[in-house]
């Protein structure tokens, strides 16, 4: 990161946006899944898979855009497994999600050896090109824009799109109905299983994209453990944001701000031990999760498999 | 004959149950046709088949003379069939209009056209004379209004044939009357209606024809005009039914239970009980009559230890149990048949055996220290099942798999088995069929005759009048009168329930 000569506030805000990006993708993914009534605790694993295959795609083709497509497809594929287990086989959704998290960590570690013949991390690959200089030449906000990357814009655009889908389209109405009262939807001829499959797979695709934003941006490699809980923080942000796209966006920004502040503050020379700064994001997460922010309302049928013809 | 619906030879088997057996059913155009039967007789199954929720194992369905295959609700809707389910199929946090258009949304390019949805809702609501705000959210409107939304949902989809499953179960008497008018209007518009119910009064008041189903088979189809309540009850249950509660005059003894100047707040923090005084004597049934929401729920919750009293006393056997824990109150001799058997009467996912000892679970012989003695528990459950005629394959099935009547019998059995001095019976027969109602009434009278006190709270005035020896009327958190059941008339009680006063009421004399 090249922050020299930047006002600290600009650096902090830009850093916040960059750090928030993977969280936003994953939180949106979580939203699709949970709005349709399927708990997706496997976001962490889907981020990991996405991060790995983004690098692999870029490594193979030298084209980071192909890497992003790899990430989206791999995330969707692993989510399809979660969908099959929790919708079709009516497995416990939490267990299925946890299994995906463990599987993702293991498979990426294995594939590192098989595909890259390395341990711990991949080789560096072509990152996604961002016209930093051109952006910086924009008056007033140029310096700020120069510090961002394409993912930031895509993430914010997707928040708007997701909100639009949920609250302005017939599909959104159906998704929410399926998550609230699947039987009501079923009696109106809406395919509950179809909607849930669509949403869970979309959820994986979005998390996969989030993974790409992690590995194919500032760093241009995949490192084991690089996701480090971001999937869970995304779930916390989604709940904190009361299961709404813009709510989740703000929540992701708050978490990311805490994270960015930690990094920036360590350079300020205040008389606090560095552990204090490192603890800030977790303190905020705990405050949020302990319900300090008031009651949020999950979809009524969230986590409950739907059985056709059940009394 | 022009039948709009004809079901021929329908058979549907669930694991262990023949829910429908060679059922024939015909609906004429423009009639209100009641499907009458006890709970679990197979009425709802038959209609779920017509609506495509279940597939029949055998049989054919004709709609307007054409043989059709109904594989899903979409097929039913496409054939002009709409259904209002007993448990409403409404998304609680959606608006009225959103619920109505769901699955058949008006679109503007790719957008959901909410303005048109609201307009369309208004249009059909007006067309059938429903007063409803398309923009209100379902969880904020009354049950009666929610039912209207369900009817509108079917009409919006162009339903010509409307199935209503137990539509009156959740309605107040006034709302039932209103529903009757609505149905007559719908018929005038050329709709045909199938009404599933087990309430005989409504059959007589609302229908043109009745088909009676018992244990999955059609017993008969009759014209309503050519039958009467007694005949219908007999066909439904399969034997002569006594619709009047038979009881000897009470032989009350000493006062065993007292409530003194009881005050309590409701869940919003408003004063719901404003100084209630009540006395129940051993060997009598005291009925509390009143319109829903006048403090009955709060009163029962305070007595059973689920709600704090603001002031006043609850006394059983000269012992003050105000503010004590439910456990202590049970042990002091009060047992409770709760208003909502699903929420408070049973743990639905537990077996019958486990349910049979709730409240006694920590006592010998069911528990030995920290261990449960399942052999004894099952033996006890079998005894109750036998004695109270609970219809179940065995004591190991989950309570949720029983019909409402049998669930309630289990609750009543358990509460009586606690050998209490006072039995609280809150809406003890809500949602039950004639056979089960008759049984539970008999049982309560029998317990009275054994010398227990019974505090009956019911919204069904008929029930209060049939069972009680004395009737207390509750209005706005106060007991506004206590009448001897012999002297109480429906008219007098009605005046008191609405907050009026009786000329003849002697001051304090009846307390």
TrEMBL record, chain A:
| One Gene Ontology term of the molecular function aspect | transmembrane transporter activity
InterPro entries, per this entry?
ABC_transp_permease
GO cellular-component terms in the record? plasma membrane
The way this protein sits in the membrane is described as: Multi-pass membrane protein
Give the location in the cell: Cell membrane
Keywords noted in UniProt: Cell membrane, Membrane, Transmembrane, Transmembrane helix
Membrane-spanning parts = 6-31, 38-59, 65-85, 97-116, 148-167, 188-209, 276-294
- Alphabetical list of Pfam families matching this protein: BPD_transp_2
Q: What is this protein called?
A: Nucleoside ABC transporter membrane protein
Automatic annotation (TrEMBL), chain B:
Q: Protein name, please?
A: Nucleoside ABC transporter ATP-binding protein
GO MF, one term, reads: ATP hydrolysis activity
GO cellular component terms, A-Z: plasma membrane
- How does the entry describe its membrane topology? Peripheral membrane protein
Q: Which PANTHER family match?
A: CARBOHYDRATE TRANSPORT ATP-BINDING PROTEIN MG119-RELATED, GUANOSINE IMPORT ATP-BINDING PROTEIN NUPO
Question: Which keywords appear in this protein's UniProt record, sorted alphabetically?
Answer: ATP-binding, Cell membrane, Membrane, Nucleotide-binding, Repeat, Translocase, Transport
SUPFAM superfamilies recorded for this chain?
Answer: P-loop containing nucleoside triphosphate hydrolases
Q: Which residues form the ABC transporter domain?
A: 5-240, 257-501
| Compartments reported by the entry | Cell membrane
The source organism is: Caloramator quimbayensis
Please report which protein family the annotation says this sequence is part of: Belongs to the ABC transporter superfamily.
């Amino acid at each position: 990161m090249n922050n020299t000569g930047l006002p600290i506030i600009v650096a902090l805000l830009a850093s916040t946006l960059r750090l928030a990006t993977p969280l936003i993708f994953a939180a949106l993914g979580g939203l699709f899944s949970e709005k349709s009534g399927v708990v997706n605790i496997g976001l962490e694993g889907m981020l990991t898979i996405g991060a790995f295959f983004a690098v692999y795609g870029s490594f193979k083709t030298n084209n980071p855009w192909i890497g992003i497509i790899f990430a989206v497809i791999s995330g969707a594929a692993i989510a399809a497994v979660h969908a099959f287990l929790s919708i079709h086989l009516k497995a416990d959704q939490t267990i299925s999600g946890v299994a995906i998290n463990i599987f993702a960590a293991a498979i990426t570690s294995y594939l590192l050896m098989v595909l890259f013949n390395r341990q711990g991390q991949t080789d560096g690959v072509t990152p996604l090109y961002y016209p930093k200089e051109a952006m910086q030449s924009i008056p007033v906000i140029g310096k700020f824009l120069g510090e961002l990357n394409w993912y930031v814009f895509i993430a914010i655009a997707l928040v708007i799109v997701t909100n639009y889908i949920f609250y302005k389209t017939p599909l959104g109405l159906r998704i929410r109905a399926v998550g609230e009262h699947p039987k009501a939807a079923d009696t109106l001829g809406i395919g509950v299983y179809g909607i849930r499959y669509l949403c869970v797979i979309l959820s994986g695709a979005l998390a996969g994209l989030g993974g790409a934003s992690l590995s194919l941006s500032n760093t241009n490699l995949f490192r084991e453990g690089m996701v480090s809980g971001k999937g869970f923080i995304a779930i916390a942000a989604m709940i904190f944001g009361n299961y709404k796209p813009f709510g989740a966006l703000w929540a992701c920004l708050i978490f990311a701000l805490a994270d960015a502040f930690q990094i920036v503050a360590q350079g300020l020379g205040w008389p606090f031990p560095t552990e204090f700064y490192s603890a800030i994001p977790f303190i905020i997460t705990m405050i949020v999760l302990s319900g300090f922010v008031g009651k949020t309302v999950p979809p009524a049928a969230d986590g409950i498999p739907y059985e056709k013809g059940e009394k | 004959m022009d039948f709009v619906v004809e079901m021929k030879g329908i058979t549907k088997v669930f694991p262990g149950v023949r829910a429908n057996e060679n059922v024939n059913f015909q609906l004429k155009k423009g009639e209100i046709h009641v499907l009458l039967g006890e709970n679990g007789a197979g009425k709802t199954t038959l209609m779920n088949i017509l609506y495509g929720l279940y597939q029949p194992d055998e049989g054919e369905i004709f709609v307007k003379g054409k043989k059709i295959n109904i594989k899903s609700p979409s097929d039913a809707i496409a054939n002009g069939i709409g259904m209002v389910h007993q448990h409403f199929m409404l998304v609680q946090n959606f608006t009225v209009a959103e619920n109505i258009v769901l699955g058949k949304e008006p679109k503007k390019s790719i957008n959901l056209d909410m303005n048109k949805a609201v307009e369309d809702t208004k249009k059909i609501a007006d067309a059938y004379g429903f007063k409803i705000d398309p923009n209100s959210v379902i969880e904020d409107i009354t049950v009666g209004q929610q039912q209207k939304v369900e009817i509108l949902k079917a009409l919006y989809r162009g339903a010509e044939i409307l199935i209503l499953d137990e539509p009156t179960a959740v309605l107040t008497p006034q709302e039932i009357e209103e529903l009757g008018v609505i149905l007559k209007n719908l018929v005038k518009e050329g709709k045909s209606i199938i009404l599933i119910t087990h309430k005989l009064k409504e059959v007589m008041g609302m229908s043109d024809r009745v088909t009676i189903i018992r244990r999955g088979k059609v017993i008969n189809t009759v014209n309503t005009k050519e039958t009467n309540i007694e005949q219908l009850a007999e066909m439904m249950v399969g034997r002569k039914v006594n619709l009047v509660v038979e009881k000897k005059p009470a032989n009350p003894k000493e006062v065993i239970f007292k409530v003194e100047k009881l005050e309590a707040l409701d869940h919003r923090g408003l004063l719901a009980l404003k100084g209630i005084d009540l006395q129940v004597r051993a060997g009598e049934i005291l009925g509390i009559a009143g319109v829903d929401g006048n403090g009955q729920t709060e009163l029962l919750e305070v007595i059973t230890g689920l709600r704090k009293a603001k002031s006043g006393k609850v006394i059983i056997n000269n012992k003050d149990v105000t503010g004590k824990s439910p456990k202590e109150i049970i042990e002091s001799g009060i047992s409770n048949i709760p208003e909502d058997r699903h929420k408070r009467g049973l743990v639905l996912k537990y077996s019958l055996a486990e349910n049979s000892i709730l409240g006694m679970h920590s006592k010998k012989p069911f528990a030995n220290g920290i261990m449960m003695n399942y052999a004894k528990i099952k033996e006890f459950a079998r005894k109750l099942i036998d004695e109270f005629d609970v219809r179940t394959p065995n004591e190991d099935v989950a309570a949720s798999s029983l019909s409402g009547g049998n669930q309630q019998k289990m609750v009543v059995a358990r509460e009586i088995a606690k050998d209490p001095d006072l039995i609280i019976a809150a809406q003890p027969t809500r949602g039950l069929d004639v056979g089960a109602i008759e049984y539970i009434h008999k049982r309560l009278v029998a317990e009275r005759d054994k010398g227990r006190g019974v505090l009956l709270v019911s919204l069904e005035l008929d029930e209060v009048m049939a069972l009680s020896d004395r009737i207390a009327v509750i209005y706005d958190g106060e007991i506004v009168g206590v009448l001897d059941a012999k002297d109480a008339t429906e008219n007098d009680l009605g005046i008191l329930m609405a907050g009026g006063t009786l000329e003849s009421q002697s001051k304090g004399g009846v307390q």
